[in-house]
Amino acid sequence: MDTLHSVMRTISTETKSGAEHLTVFREFLRHLDSIQRKAPVKSPAKVARRKAPPRRKPAKRSRSS
Asked: According to DSSP H, which parts of 1-65 are helical?
């Protein structure tokens, strides 16, 4: 159990850095911004869907006994 705690302490000190997480976050935001700017603009004609034909009423059938 002592070795587990010592390993955990060494790992936690390696992963915690003050400014690195901010640079990664800023890079992520820059990436999102560039993707958003490169996104193609869809024209309204392509976005509009074709209107579905109206539903028909079922045919009435007479009862023949």
From this structure: 2-15, 20-38, 44-47
Q: Cβ–Cβ contacts within 10 Å for residue 21, how many?
A: 11
Tell me which DSSP letter residue 18 carries: T
pTM of the model: 0.34
Phi-psi region of 28 (alpha: psi -120 to 50; beta: other; left: phi over 0): alpha
Backbone angles phi, psi at 46, to 5 degrees: -80, -30
CA–CA distances in Å: residue 19 to residues 3, 31, 61: 29, 19, 78
* pLDDT, tens digit (0-9, with 9 covering 90-100), for 11-60: 776 555 566 778 888 999 999 888 888 767 666 555 566 788 888 888 88
- Half-sphere CA count of 15, side-chain side, radius 13 A: 6
Distance CA 1, CA 17 (A): 26
